[in-house]
Amino acid sequence: MSRPFILGLTGSIGMGKSTVAKMFDRQGVPVFDADAEVRRLQGPDGALLPAIEAAFPGTTSSQGVDRAKLGASVFADPAALARLEAIVHPAVRAARDRFLAEHADAALVVFDIPLLFEKGGADEVDAVAVVSAPAEVQSARVLARPGMTARRLAEIRRLQLPDAEKRVRADCLIDTGTSLAETEAAVAELAARLATQRR
Length: 199
What we know:
The chain has nine helices and seven strands. By secondary structure, the chain is α/β, with parallel strands linked by helices. The protein has a five-stranded parallel beta sheet with strand order 2-5-1-6-7, with helices on both faces. A two-stranded antiparallel ribbon has the order 3-4.
């Protein structure tokens, strides 16, 4: 039985991955947004709230997870982060499997997964597209975000695979250091090419 070609979409913070995901969506390609699914699972009435509260008391409320409190609990503690991931990752995987079943007739689907290489998900897709831009462009984009500091950016970069290594491991590279029109044209070309490779 055939299935869609699965493209894993990833990229470091500030590289423009979310913008590129929207471009695939405009091309009619179904996109599974792993971050959005996590926000839903951890939001008001989210399915994961009881398990997260049990593991990290005081980090949830009727409004969902308090991201600042939860982040403070796990950011510098690898064991705590592993406990959180053991709660979150199976639920996201189940949602992704449902998404794939819902779009079984599509020629191409995109799994938008920020830490695709870091968490070992690259083996579960047919190809990986890395979204990348020059380091100075990345820094300018991220430091323009509310509350972001150079120190915080350095900490995030430390947790992510270096962009240069992602570029080497990529099957496809999407450059967002160019104009939006050029990036959109590259996405359209890639979507059209991969849609012919349904498995």
